[in-house]
Amino acid sequence: MGILAVSLIVSAFTLGDKQNTVEMKVFHMKLLIARDKASVIPDIHSKEELLLFVSENKKRLYSLKDGEVASATITFNRPLSKEEVLELLGSNVKILAVRYKSYPEGIGQLPYPMEVNESEELKLLEKKLKQNFGEEFKLIEGFISAKVIAPKEELIRISKSRNVFDVNIGPKSTLDSYGVKYVTIEDVWWKYEKYILKQQKS
């Protein structure tokens, strides 16, 4: 099934100077590093690799110093409503962006704060897309991940939620050794959907 690229506002990460970009692979993750910026992309090809990836992410999370603040991407295990996301993350977590799943297919991203129900622009976009994809199309079925900045204790609390599949802070020691200050970590929703959700349905 093809993926419908639906995104009103995409917080796209670009490295810019490709000549000065360092590429490497660290435990099922591809890293692209340019000066003080980095992109972390999961590189997973099986259910076994995915589960091992999540387990290693948990170990890295617990290895943070008490009170240490880190960038993280949280992948939920089902599409959550706006209210569920805010209740899960709480007031001590800085939300940078959220990704949403469209119905019956498609993924997009919004910066935070997310004016989901209130935005006339979103409603107009959904109405226009329904002309192409049918009346059953829904622009935002629910939110599947969030990019955040939070202290270790908050990230551990979130990781224990029954609505969370993965909390990834990336290979922080490697990123720190390159002097990275700004990092974008991709979620694993597509891998989770492919290797776990679809297998549960089959």
Explain what this protein looks like in three dimensions.
The chain is α+β, with helices and mostly antiparallel strands. It has one domain (18-201). Helix content is 32%, strand content 33%. A 5-stranded antiparallel beta sheet has the order 6-5-7-4-8. It has a 4-stranded mixed beta sheet with strand order 1-2-3-9, with no helix packed on it. The longest helix is centred in the N-terminal third of the chain and has 16 residues, at 47-62.
Which spans have pLDDT < 50 for at least 5 consecutive residues?
A: 1-15
Count every helix, treating DSSP H or I runs of 4 or more residues as helices: 6
How do the helices and strands follow one another from N- to C-terminus? Answer: EEEHEHEEHEHEHEH
Integer average pLDDT: 87
| Strand elements, count | 9
Based on Cα principal axes, name the global outline.
globular
- The helix fraction, in percent, is 25-40%
Tell me the span between the first and last alpha carbons.
Answer: 15 Å
What is Rg? 17 Å
β content, as a range? Answer: 25-35%
Which strand order spans the largest sheet, edge to edge or round the barrel?
6-5-7-4-8
The largest β sheet comes out as: 5 strands, antiparallel
Task: State the secondary-structure class.
Answer: alpha+beta
Total separate domains: 1
Furnish the topology, listing elements before pairings.
Layout lengths: L20 E5 L3 E6 L2 E6 L4 H16 L6 E12 L1 H8 L4 E10 L3 E5 L8 H14 L4 E14 H8 L4 E5 L3 H6 L4 E4 L3 H13 L1
Parallel strand pairs: 3-9
Antiparallel strand pairs: 1-2, 2-3, 4-7, 4-8, 5-6, 5-7
